[in-house]
Specification:
The structure is a single chain. The protein is of the alpha+beta class and about 600 residues long. It folds into three domains: about 30-185 and about 265-380, Alpha/Beta hydrolase fold, catalytic domain (Rossmann fold), CATH 3.40.50; about 190-260, no CATH class; about 390-610, Galactose-binding domain-like (Jelly Rolls). About 20% of the residues lie in helices and about 30% in strands. It is built from 13 helices and 27 strands. The chain has helices at about 1-20, 25-40, 85-90, 120-130, 150-155, 195-205, 220-225, 235-240, 245-250, 285-300, 345-355, 405-410, 605-610, and strands spanning about 40-50, 55-65, 70-75, 95-100, 135-145, 165-170, 190, 195, 275-280, 310-315, 325-330, 335-340, 365-370, 375-380, 390-395, 400, 415-420, 460-465, 470-475, 480-485, 490-500, 505-515, 535-540, 540-545, 550-555, 585-590, 595-600. The chain has a ten-stranded mixed β-sheet, with helices on both faces. Strands 15, 16, 17, 20, 23, 26 and 27 form a seven-stranded antiparallel β-sheet that branches. Strand 7 (about 190) and strand 8 form a beta hairpin. The protein is globular, with a radius of gyration of 26 Å. The mean pLDDT is about 90.
Length: about 600
């Protein structure tokens, strides 16, 4: 008897191992047991037809308890896997969750048609048409997800499906196109300059046009690290992976080219009927575009609910909302005191308000974490009404001096300047900042000690005296600089830095201006070497407390590589060029050419901090 019991046990184990080894059998077993384990029914691989006949693979998660029909939360993904814990949370709270692979990805058809968002409007709209016809659907649909999953929501909202009631778009500033001067296009560009590390990493890892191709090479991470400084930039993707991507298209078309229209990013003609909760983080590279999109969507509302555009900003990196540890948390190398919110409860309350008519909850229009204060703040407008803008002027000996009198006190009216030589073949290295999706395996994003850069010769540093009281920087800092160069074109990069008494210097936000775009991306114009030009730049927003005894500093250079593609200083298209030249770049700072930075200071007397 024991012998046969042992044989039966062994056979059972072998059968289970065989099932687990086979993906289809594993899925079948998981679906069969899901109602018992979680009280959820999953219908897998429903092929939903689009208007052109292409079918998209769709999974539907429905509650076993409660009463049908249910409101629906739609998640459209390019990455395949979706966080089951989030799905379970929403289903347990009375929602049907629909998860769909976008066209050309995983189980969906159209494998040779992939472009990030070319079909996000039409396919999303057709999917919603299908959802409202299902017996389990109440007809009210919300959308959810981060990064690509957030961008696709905003782009879909521009299609104005009548059943698209609300959305929670996280880390989704990449949905922006040419509105409000951004020309961001999937987060690929910043002020007209290519976000090289992110664009190259994302397209080579996730952006194969034909999904039925060779897998990512085994040595991918080493190859991208080796090749990223090669020229021309337009050829980099094909040197890293053996398949075709959209990288070449994104870097070859001018930012005002009609080509971008078909890629479906948000443009000035779009209008909206969907309420939105825009969620992002201070160190996301598209956080500025999150604010722009919320503003644009409210301005272009075609339904009263679309006036409801709310912004929630956590302090971390891309798509890290809710992932920081309560108490002490790290953003890059910088440790902060952090108070964690119950984000899933906020999301559920949002959906309940719009999709179940549960009255009583709407968040503040702007809710944000004030870094180094350990607290959350709220405002009905951005920047907060109590914010005042104050100027810091660039002065001799690397001083940053507050007040109008700083410019008039400059001793030499015409002869005050600081210069450095910028060599594109020896660029300023990226140290932290707003970086994501680089394909490097380890994302070096967030706040990092910048003091390792101060010995370089291609950097200018200006710092205030030690602050006499805490100072809260809340909003978008702006810089106005008078510059010249020995080249026909070059870049100027700036960082706002918290220079601490112990010598550490943490980056807050940074920005870039390409000199040929000084009058806007729409009107590029090369410069005359040696002539002085005024440039202006707006930094990404942030809420940050400089502590008493710290210094406000700005670091000026002409590169931030590989986060940003290098300007080769030749006047040619830097995405296509192979030749580079050294440029002598100059910051002018006198009464005739006063260079300064404007800081939005909130909630306290500025004079207490600086006098």
């Amino acid at each position: 008897m024991k012998f046969w019991l042992g044989v039966a046990t062994l056979c059972t184990i072998l059968i289970i191992l065989l099932i687990l080894k086979t993906q289809h059998l594993r899925n079948w077993l998981s679906d069969l047991s899901l109602p018992i384990r979680h009280g959820i029914h999953r219908a897998r691989n429903i092929m939903v037809p689009m208007r052109d006949g292409i079918q998209l693979a769709t999974d539907v998660y429905t509650p076993l308890s409660g009463h049908s029909p249910y409101p629906v939360i739609l998640i459209r993904t390019t990455y395949g896997a979706t966080d089951f814990q989030e799905i379970k949370y929403f289903v347990k709270n009375g929602y049907v969750v629909v998860v769909q692979d976008v066209r050309g990805r995983y189980r969906s058809q159209g494998q040779r048609q992939y472009s990030p968002h070319r079909y996000s409007r039409s396919d999303g709209y057709d999917t919603m048409d299908w959802i409202v016809k299902q017996k389990w659907s109440s007809g009210k649909i919300g959308t959810y997800g981060c990064s690509y999953l957030g961008e696709s929501q905003i782009i879909l909202a521009a299609a104005k499906h009548p059943n698209h009631i609300c959305m929670i778009a996280q880390g989704a500033g990449g949905a922006i196109g040419n509105i409000k001067g951004s020309y961001g296009y999937f987060g690929v560009y910043e002020n007209g300059v290519l976000n090289l590390a992110s664009a190259l990493g994302w397209f080579t890892e996730y952006g194969a046009i034909d999904y039925n191709i060779t897998a990512i090479p085994e040595n991918y991470q080493n190859t991208i690290a080796k090749e990223i400084d090669g020229l021309p930039v337009i050829d980099l993707a094909k040197r890293i992976v053996p398949y075709k991507t959209s990288f070449e298209d994104y870097v070859s078309h001018g930012l005002t080219d009609i080509w971008w229209k078909d890629e479906n990013y948000i443009n000035d003609k779009d209008s909206f009927t969907t309420a939105a909760l825009h969620v992002n983080t201070w160190y996301d590279q598209t956080v500025h575009d999150t604010f722009r999109l919320a503003e644009q969507m409210a301005e272009k509302a075609q339904h009263p609910r679309a006036k409801h555009q709310y912004v929630l900003i956590d302090p971390g990196n891309h798509c890290s909302t809710g992932k920081l540890s309560d108490g002490r948390a790290c953003i890059g190398e910088m440790e902060i005191e952090y108070k964690k919110l119950d984000f899933m409860k906020i999301y559920l309350d949002w959906f309940n308000y719009w999709l179940k008519d549960v009255q009583g909850f709407l968040p503040p229009h702007f809710q944000y974490f004030l870094i180094n204060a350990g607290s959350w703040k709220a405002a009905e407008k951005w920047p907060p009404p109590e914010t005042e803008v104050h100027r810091y002027y660039l002065r001799e000996r690397g001083l940053l001096v507050r007040g109008e009198s700083a410019a008039s006190n400059t001793r030499d009216l015409k002869g005050s300047w600081d210069s450095f030589d910028y060599d594109p073949l020896n660029p300023m290295p990226t140290v932290g900042g707003s970086v994501c999706c680089t394909g490097s395996g380890v994302e070096v994003s967030g706040a990092f000690d910048q003091s390792r850069l101060i010995q370089r010769k291609d950097i200018l540093i200006y710092a205030s005296d030690p602050l006499k009281a805490d100072l809260d920087l809340v909003g978008n800092a702006k810089a106005s600089l008078y510059v010249s160069t020995s080249a026909m074109d070059t870049d100027f990069t700036l960082k706002i830095v918290d220079q601490q008494p112990d010598g550490k210097a943490y980056n807050l936000q940074d920005s870039v201006v390409r000199l040929s775009y000084r009058n806007g991306v729409e009107t590029p114009q090369l410069v005359t070497p040696g002539e002085i030009y005024k440039i202006e730049m707006v930094f990404r927003p942030i809420a940050y407390r400089f502590k008493s005894g710290h210094r406000v500093a700005i670091y000026i250079s002409s590169s931030n590589f590989p986060r940003l593609a290098r300007n080769l200083n030749t006047g040619e298209n830097s995405n296509k060029g192979v030749a580079a030249k050294i440029a002598t770049n100059t910051i002018h700072r006198n009464c005739t050419h006063p260079s300064y930075i404007e800081l939005p200071i909130s909630g306290q007397e500025f004079s207490e901090a600086t006098n």
